[in-house]
Predict the 3D structure of the following.
Amino acid sequence: MSRKPFYVTTPIYYVNDVPHIGHAYTTIAADVMTRYRRMCGFDTFFLTGTDEHGQKIQRAAAAKGLTAQELADRTVVNFQELWKALGVSNDDFIRTTEERHRKVVQHIFATLLAKGDIYKGSYEGWYCVPCETYVPESQMGEAKTCPDCGRKLEMMTEESYFFRMSRYAEPLLAYYEANGEAILPKGRCNEILSFLRGGLRDQSISRTTISWGIPVPGDEKHVVYVWFDALINYLAAVGYPEENAPWQKYWPVVHHLVGKDIIRFHSVVWPAMLLALGVNPPKLVFAHGWWTVEGEKMSKSKGNVVDPFEMVELYGRDSFRYFLLREVPFGLDGDFSELALVQRRNADLANDLGNLLNRTLQMVERYCGGKIPVAGAETEQERDLAELVAATRRDVDSCMDRYAFDEALKNIWVLVGRGNKYIDDTMPWKLGKEENAERLGTVLNTLCRVLRTVACLVAPFIPDSAARMMDQLGLNAESLSGGQGIPEWTEDLSGVSVHRGDVLFPRIDLKEWEAEKADREARKGMLPDPGDHEPEIEVEQFRSCEFRVASVLAVEPVPKADKLYKLELDLGYERRTIVSGIREFYAPEELVGRKIIVICNLKPAKLRGVLSNGMLLAAETADGKGLALLTVDRDIAPGSRIH
Ligand code: MSP
């Protein structure tokens, strides 16, 4: 039997920014769904990528003195590396600057132009000349000024191609009325329906004011507007419009996961483009909510942007993945805090899940020589547990169908909790002491089978930990990523040798964590420690160094030494000569008359034949290329001692 196809996408991320928790969220959600479907035997395809054209990128690049392509090539790596760090198992990564994408955008543009769904017209709007951008009337206010730079806007008209979107309001309404599940959550679907009922306006889809984009075929002074370009990635990556290409099986079942801010592009503009092409609209667009951070909107200026790399480094990717999907129902807004993450990790992962595994394996080791025992007769307790296992599998499946990740996890944790309670109720340690081998065998065998089911169910969410659970249970971890599905409850495990290892999630001590976090926060923005420190000294040792203020009387180059100057110094009570390697950094006239700091009791040394009687103090400049002299910031008499 051929496997059912499943295709899931994330938005393609702009490369003018570093990846943050919002990007990580959608990609992790798509990964969890893909892993679940893959485990259940679907033929899955998971796409993510980057959106590299448009004015934002062009401008960000210009600000850094780079070409747009150079900026994109540098920053795309951040996303690719993040997906590795988060254990994301995408099948493809598309960049809109790739040739395979450009070809499809131009093909679609030409097709819709030939069909009359694209036409040339003129675009009129309020334009900010310095920012080179049109400002929607809703954002310009009474004074008609730019919301970014505050300058006066001008009415501008330019030639532009338009997509005849107005044609598709009715067909789209009919489509959504017949397919009530095509936009989730439901509330979002209602929003889109009422928007469509207001009718649609044709969309300007080309620009002549910017150059960083895909040229309009046959009219190259225009580039394709970045959203029209970007949406097409979903088709381009699966080989549209080629015959016998993967898009034919995957497109009918595509799910787009997006943030709530970009739902109109995905549920109105994109489906209208697809209808115009004669291709089905997405099977599902799921709009998730936004994260705030400790109650506040995340922003660079507040300095509260959550760096997913840092979270992975501090807590491990599984804790981060688990937290994001467990904390907030997918579809609603949520609040991120590290404390909440640590608390969840301690309670759910360390206490509940980690303990169930650890307690069980300890007893298998202690009472059964490390081999899972044969199960004896079942009682009501085992039958109840078996029923719960079956119900959990069903419930998780229906939650996953609805992208209710948090509910799926809650269901799994009910089973974990029942597993722990089963241990408390059956008291296997007593059975061990009483040498009640049959009952002990039943209990430990049952627990290992509960753990096997749990490992499979949590695998899409916390893949590394699930694999470690399987390893410790003596089972093949690879089966988690294959398509065999979750083993049946009755499939026996007796005789398997377990390998208890390190605990899955060491508990984080809250007191230590608070101190460590305060320290981390204090260091934010600091440079790394250069590490070239000297051993501690006594105050006497410091006092034995005789530092004094000296006034520079004369400076001359040392012959045949291009780095050295000979300096005549006035110490008030005496004159002396020192030689110093500061010739590249100061002209003699910049030095004469300066008050500098010298160490006076340094053993004299001959440098290129000149006796240097002391040394001046200087430090490297910030770029590491120059030197700056230490001087005094008040009028100090030459010879003054420095304490
Ligand atoms: N390039 C477009 C998408 C084109 S898709 C054809 C884009 N890129 S983006 O990088 O700005 O944003 C990508 C996603 O990040 C969006 O889905 C957006 O909702 C999401 N998030 C940005 N900040 C977020 C939070 N604070 N919380 C959750 N998601 C957020 O838009």
